Q: What sequence folds into this?
DNA sequence: ATTACTGCAAAGCATTTGCAAATGC
DNA sequence: GCATTTGCAAATGCTTTGCAGTAAT
């Protein structure tokens, strides 16, 4: 396919090798900027992340790297993933909090949350615009929606 | 108060007792419908959930119920919360999966996911409409957004 | 009487952490 | 040479589970 055919995002997957090679120097700068070291383990994890074009789980990646000639230990995989997140190369697709939160919904409409990272407070909101847009997207993607969640992380102004 | 005065979001706390009393019989039906028993422990957890008007964590609720005259054990609290979720009285405010998922975002635009519960597949999408709506809501709520996530659970049609 | 449920304590399991050895600078 | 990292293994902490006793039907 021609790169021009690719609609989604700007990622051009023929460029995958180039992608690591382009990105690595940036990670190096990031590390240098914080007086951290450029190590083999970090390079290995970095490459492995870029070799994937799908979503992955930290523990899967760690398992993959647990053996073989370029093995990296669990702790280091997790630590490097944190660095990469901080540097903005990966995004964590999960709530920050590992704990399960609940709320009772009897008599409530569906709603979503603004979560203040500083105080941990939740602000509820609901939006017809969003629900409708999601319904539209699902129809377009031939996907049957069961429910959706919208979470906005940030902070309350003036708190 | 007239129920009609109630806006959304501002739960009116005088109504709290009525809310449980209205809901409990429904839970009883649900339990009977699946040949499960109506027990004291379940009633205690149910009430405690409805007595809260905020979000709560399973482990906090469990800690609360760990002592006192109406104590309920940890295991039972978790099990009852599952039942209540299944029955639709509470909503779990967290991804289904406890594991952290990552993806690399270098060269990708921000995007979100449709997650197929059957196959576990992810379908990516992005929507300017949603981002703008969220920005609008944050402005309205005086909230400074850092980032947002939209997750739609459901299933792919014809898979 | 039966059978489901509860409490308990132990097990699970992803993730984190302390520390001695290894490595980058 | 010195400080940061790594690997290892043990610890964490929420959640789940097996089992024997208890309660609901």
A:
């Amino acid at each position: 396919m021609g790169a021009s055919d690719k609609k989604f995002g700007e990622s051009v997957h023929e460029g995958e090798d180039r992608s690591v090679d382009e990105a690595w120097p940036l990670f190096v700068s990031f590390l240098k900027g914080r007086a951290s070291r450029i190590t083999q383990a970090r390079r290995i994890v970095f490459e492995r992340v870029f070799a994937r074009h799908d979503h992955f789980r930290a523990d899967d990646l760690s398992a993959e790297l647990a053996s073989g000639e370029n093995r990296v230990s669990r702790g280091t995989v997790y630590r490097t993933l944190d660095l990469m997140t901080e540097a903005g190369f990966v995004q964590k697709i999960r709530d920050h909090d590992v704990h399960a939160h609940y709320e009772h919904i009897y008599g409530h409409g569906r709603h979503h949350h603004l979560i203040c990272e500083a105080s941990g407070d939740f602000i509820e909101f609901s939006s017809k615009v969003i629900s409708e847009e999601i319904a539209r997207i699902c129809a377009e993607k031939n996907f049957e929606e069961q429910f959706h969640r919208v979470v906005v992380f940030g902070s309350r102004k003036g708190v």
